[in-house]
Specification:
The complex is a heterotrimer of chains A (295), B (285) and C (281). By secondary structure, chain A is mainly α. Helices cover 78% and strands 0% of the residues of chain A. Chain B has a two-stranded antiparallel ribbon. Chain C is built from eleven helices and eleven strands. In chain C, strands 1, 2, 3, 4, 5, 6, 7, 8, 9, 10 and 11 form an eleven-stranded mixed β-sheet that branches. In chain C, helix 7 links the parallel strand 6 and strand 7. Classes of the chains: A mainly alpha (295), B mainly alpha (285), C alpha/beta (281). Chains in contact: A-B, A-C, B-C. Chains A and B meet through helix 1, helix 4, helix 5, helix 6 and helix 7 of A and helix 1, helix 3, helix 4, helix 5 and helix 6 of B.
Chain lengths: 295, 285, 281
């Protein structure tokens, strides 16, 4: 082995390990700090304040000093946005990978990359302006609300879903891809029975990415209906609280150490929520793959 | 049966067309709402003048500059780390560590921007205030590492996916020839995964340009042209968030749409540049 | 005779409600009575100086009647005026009087329920506790850039200001800075609360907030020898003062009406006072 090559070997290896270590350190510092500051306040009172948890859960009483409304708001946002985005995103991804070709594909590809680049604040701006436009036409009922936020968030995560679906399908081994058609399966059967199950882990990876984006996005929701204090939304047309917005709000406006501690609690809670989603998706992923491959 | 199949295939196409149209719709939307600005011939002054609504100046040059600076800075910090980490995952780490790292990256992809900024506000800002020795600690230099941390998972996930797509046969061939892991990286993985590297970097840059919370909470939001990286500055997204509250029919509000349009165009231009002949990610896959 | 009967009845009602809600003063129950049987949601947004009072009022009302949802958002006075005018929210808050154009354009009804001052603040460790108008204008314009020029340490001054939508900024700019320039090097924060926490965290910062927000985490700076406190605002010697307004498009009705009335009730005005503002009644 020549000296120069050896140096390259060592540099590249060190560089990679250092990068990994750096990320790990950053993560440990972040999580450690959040746990140290937010850990002590974790508990039922963080969620429900002085309100009895059962009354709060059954919506009999409002929660004032707790994060329950914000947590509920965030969950509703995620569900709403994903319900809207997943079918559209995955269908588009399938089209991109399996049907589109040549110039059509290039044009769509460009459009989706641009879509991915549109900053969430611009999406929020669009959401707000469209709301105002609708409000001027249809009157009082249309206002910034949960529904508008879900729509805007769905729009925001579309490219993540499209791209991961497309990449997942395109990266399938050609042998796998050609087997079923050779045995007489139609294109659609091939997609439904072979290609999709085969690329499911990657697609779910994309969905996780998108879910995380929904849970965390603050810029869109602060323009389209998230407020500092609202309680649990009773309909899609209500304003709502959300964890990320609450954290942003507290970071700037805390008036006492207690409130700041709640902010850290919220940050930790949001972190836990995202991790829980992740674990859930991973468990689902293994089962789903097996289920779809062997049915 | 056949009808149903055709119908489903149409569904896929319609979905893609809808998504594509949505992309264009927002462009038209920004254009129409920003139109008054273009009609009044404010375009040039918009890009060159400072932001001083009290004096009738609605220039967004400082914000544009700050946005680009911040995105490049965070990419400069984030790209090497992403590359190193994704190579570590793909080629160097033992299996167990590999799973751990993948888990870590996925977890990081889920960590909210606002949580990063929130923690940085209490950890990094006081530190930067001491290090820089002047100013409030809210600066481009404070926001950049946080933004880098934010875009790293996105990039790593794309990079790893790209590396895994690289032809296995080549890797096995190199193994058979007795090649080292590093040779594998340099000669097979890196060239083979170039489209994915570009794709991931694109998304990372787009996300860095478009992120609101990090710069809004950590960069200081002053409207001056930043003269150094240690200065407080306002990015385009933060500008939109801050000016959002003005009157709908005012020039301030109209100028926000110009900001949005600018962000949109920068992104679009970037995507086109990356598609110059021979570099198109889709042709190679 | 009739009046005393009503009084007795009201008293009984109060006692009943007081019994149902132990710990609640009778007066409060009385002022909350109009919310009995009301339903639905009320949207409030705008000025951030208003938020502590709004939150407390909402809390009392929603505890009294859980069928009512009151959502409260910030965004600044400009947003409050605009969104109330557009009908996007039911009540908009503003820390400045809307312009006559705004009032006419949106047919706004104004309710001024408190008086507030806008005071300059610095970090408690900062020795500078008094500034002249000229010095203050110099600092915010960027002409005075070091604390030692006004008797402090040798360190650059970090200026903090508010976004353009802010009523606090408008009032401060008009009355304390005499419409002078605000340096574009100033850091911009988006609310009174944010201003307070930021200046409390920056030993070399200077900013301005609603007097209602002042506490021990920041130090008030006297302007031309007059301290920014409630007493001085009340007697007129501190001139950077303003009314806090709530606005509705047209005459408020239903829940919005009840809410505005509650702000003017003895309980509402007590909340105003508790939150460090000057009640109007």
């Amino acid at each position: 082995m020549t000296g120069q090559r050896k140096i390259t070997e060592i540099t590249v290896t060190w560089f990679c390990w250092l990068s990994g270590l750096l990320l790990l350190a950053a993560l440990v510092i972040l999580v450690g700090y959040l746990i140290r500051r937010g850990g002590p306040v974790l508990g039922l009172s963080l969620l429900f304040g002085d309100t009895p948890p059962l009354d709060a859960l059954l919506l009999r009483k409002h929660v004032f000093d707790g994060l329950y409304p914000a947590l509920a708001g965030t969950l509703l946002l995620i569900i709403g946005a994903m319900v809207l985005a997943i079918p559209l995103g995955i269908a588009s991804g399938i089209y991109m990978a399996e049907y589109a070709g040549g110039r059509t594909k290039a044009v769509f590809s460009l459009l989706f990359d641009i879509l991915a680049g549109i900053p969430s604040i611009v999406v929020g701006l669009a959401g707000l302006s469209i709301t105002i436009f609708l409000h001027r036409i249809f009157g009082e009922r249309i206002m910034p609300c949960l529904l508008i936020s879900c729509l805007a968030l769905a729009y925001l995560v579309l490219p993540y879903l499209i791209r991961t679906t497309q990449v997942a399908l395109e990266s399938i081994d050609p042998v796998v891809r050609r087997t079923a058609p050779a045995l007489g399966a139609s294109r659609l059967q091939n997609i439904g029975r072979v290609l999709l199950p085969h690329s499911l882990p990657a697609i779910i990876g994309g969905i996780i990415l998108a879910t995380g984006r929904c849970a965390e996005d603050t810029a869109v929701i602060m323009l389209t209906g998230a407020v500092a204090s609202a309680g649990i939304p009773r309909s899609l047309l209500d304003q709502y609280e959300a964890l990320p917005f609450y954290i942003y709000y507290i970071s700037a406006q805390y008036t006492s150490p207690d409130e700041l501690a709640t902010g850290f609690g919220a940050a930790l809670l949001l972190l836990l929520l995202c991790s829980a989603l992740l674990v859930l998706a991973l468990v689902l992923q293994r089962r789903l793959t097996i289920f779809l491959l062997y049915r | 049966m056949g009808d149903r199949m055709v119908f489903r295939e149409h569904l896929f196409r319609s979905a893609a067309v809808i998504c594509g149209l949505l992309t264009l719709a927002i462009f038209c939307f920004l254009c129409v709402l920003g139109l008054p600005l273009l009609q009044d011939g404010h375009l040039l002054s918009l890009l060159s003048s400072p932001w001083a609504p009290a004096r009738g100046l609605y220039g967004i040059f400082p914000m544009l500059l700050a946005s680009i600076l911040l995105a490049l800075l965070s990419l400069a910090l984030g790209f090497p780390v992403s590359l190193g980490c994704s190579l570590l995952i793909t080629a160097l780490a033992p299996r167990r560590l590999r799973m751990l790292l993948i888990g870590m990256i996925r977890l990081m992809a889920g960590i909210p921007t606002v949580v990063y900024s929130f923690a940085a506000l209490f950890l990094l800002v006081p530190l930067m205030r001491t290090l820089i020795g002047r100013g409030s600690g809210l600066s481009l230099l404070t926001a950049a590492p946080v933004l880098a941390l934010l875009i790293v998972p996105t990039m790593v996930i794309f990079f790893v996916a790209g590396f895994e797509k690289v032809n296995r046969a080549h890797l096995l061939a190199l193994d058979a020839l007795g090649g080292s892991r590093v040779q594998k990286i340099i000669h097979i993985l890196l060239p083979g995964a170039r489209p994915a590297l570009i794709n991931g970097t694109l998304l990372g840059f787009g996300r860095a340009m478009g992120d609101t919370m990090v710069s809004l909470m950590l960069a200081g939001n002053s409207t001056a042209v930043p003269s150094s990286l240690a200065d407080s500055a306002r990015t385009l997204p933060a500008h939109i968030a801050l000016v959002m509250a003005s009157d709908f029919d005012s020039m301030e509000f109209t100028s926000i749409f110009a900001c949005g349009l600018l962000l949109y165009l920068v992104t679009g231009l970037l995507m086109l540049l990356m598609r110059l002949p021979g570099r198109s990610p889709d042709n190679e896959s | 005779m009739k009046r005393s009967q009503t009084g007795v009845l009201l008293g009984l009602l109060c006692m009943t409600i007081g019994f149902l809600y132990p710990g609640m003063p009778l007066q409060a129950a009385d002022d909350l009575a109009p919310f009995t049987g009301l339903k639905g949601s009320l949207r409030i947004a705008g000025g951030t100086a208003h938020i502590p009072v709004m939150k407390e009022a909402a809390r009392r009302i929603m505890s009294f009647n859980p069928d009512i949802r009151i959502s409260i958002a910030g965004g600044g006075s400009g947003l409050g005026i605009r969104q109330a005018g557009e009908g996007l929210i039911d009540i908009g808050n503003a820390g400045r009087r809307p312009t006559d154009t705004e009032i006419a354009k949106y047919n706004l009804k104004l309710f001024q329920w408190a008086i507030d001052g806008v005071g300059v603040i610095v970090h408690p460790d900062n020795p500078v506790r008094t500034l002249t108008s000229a010095q203050l204008q110099g600092i915010f314009a960027g002409r005075i850039s070091n604390w030692k020029e006004v008797g402090g340490v040798d360190r650059e001054i970090d200026i903090y200001t508010r976004d353009e939508s802010s009523g606090t900024r408008k009032v401060f700019w008009k009355k304390a800075l005499a419409r002078g320039t605000i340096s574009d090097r100033a850091n911009v924060v988006v609310s009174n609360g944010a201003m307070k926490t930021t200046v409390a965290g920056d030993p070399f910062g200077i900013g301005y907030i609603s007097i209602g927000y002042m506490d021990a985490t920041v130090a008030p700076v006297s302007l031309d020898g007059v301290a920014p406190d409630l007493a001085n605002v009340r007697n007129g010697s501190y001139r950077v003062a303003r009314g806090l307004y709530s606005l509705t498009r047209g005459e408020p009705a239903g829940l919005a009406r009840a809410f505005v009335d509650f702000l003017f009730s003895p309980t509402g005005q007590q909340i105003v006072q508790d939150k460090g503002l000057i009640p109007v009644r």
